[in-house]
Amino acid sequence: MKKVFIPALWFKSLSNYFDLFCTAIGLGKKYRKEVIRYLGSIKQDSRILDAGCGTGSLATDLKQLNKTAQIYGVDIDKDILKLAERKRARNNLEIIFECSPIQSLPYKPSSFDIVYSSLVMHHLKTEDKKIALREIHRVLKRGGYFLLADFGKPSNLFSAPF
Predict the structure, then answer these.
(1) Distance in angstroms (rounded) separating the CA atoms of residues 145 and 84
(2) Which phi and psi angles does 5 have, rounded to 5°?
(3) By the 8 A CB rule, do 99 and 81 touch?
(4) Average pLDDT, stretch 116-138?
(5) Mean pLDDT of 43-69
(6) In this model, does residue 94 exceed pLDDT 90?
(7) H/E stretch holding 113
(8) Where on the phi/psi map is residue 27: left (φ > 0), alpha (ψ -120 to 50), or beta?
(9) Confidence of residue 85 (pLDDT cuts 50, 70, 90)
(10) How far is CA 125 from CA 4, 54, 120, 159, in A?
(11) What's the pLDDT band for 161 if we cut at 50, 70, 90?
(12) Distance between the two ends of the chain, CA-based, in angstroms?
């Protein structure tokens, strides 16, 4: 699979400003808190996957609230994962971040109790969305659940997939 993607904020040089940008447009701490609320009560020792984790902010917030949860994050952008790793280390948390497209998850079937994806799917073409959803279904345990938090269909050049 060809790993073509648009870096956070379109340019690699702007990746360091992604969290600041998200906060400025209303997708910061308050947004993440709402996503976590939708995840509901998390059982002790749950295995959770953040599919398209970006800078790891949501995974970090979730781990801080659920110390016994095993949290994994995948993202296709190795540079943005460096920011996630720094955030994880700064907060002294056990979160495993891996570089992978969500259309080809590096996990065995039935590996996770919960999978969530936030602000990623709108970047994918329709066929890639279908593949990603099949992969998410594949890694979910029976009785597990998936939460998708995202925008609708792209309506302008800045949110259109390429």
Answers:
(1) 24
(2) -155, 165
(3) yes
(4) 90
(5) 94
(6) yes
(7) strand 112-118
(8) alpha
(9) very high
(10) 12, 18, 11, 11
(11) very low
(12) 15
**Reduced to 3 states, what is the DSSP secondary structure of residue 24?**
helix
The 10 Å CB-count burial string (b at 16+, else e) for 7-45 is ebbeeeeebeebbeebeeeebeeebbeebbeebeebeee
Structural Rg of the chain based on CA atoms: 15
The Cα–Cα gap between 39 and 33 comes to 10
Rounded to the nearest integer, the mean pLDDT of the chain is 83
Region of 3 please: left (phi>0), alpha (psi -120 to 50) or beta.
beta
> What letter would DSSP give residue 125?
-
Identify residue 87 by its one-letter amino acid code: K
The encoded tokens of residue 83 equal 């920011």
pLDDT digits (tens, 9 = 90+) for 139-154: 999 999 999 988 665 5
The residue ranking higher by pLDDT, 162 or 103, is: 103
Instruction: Compute the residue count for the chain.
Output: 162
Contacts of 26 (CB under 8 A, 6+ apart): none
Q: How many Cα atoms occupy the beta-carbon half-sphere of 90 within 13 Å?
A: 11
Confidence of residue 162 (pLDDT cuts 50, 70, 90): very low
Q: Which amino acid is at 84?
A: A
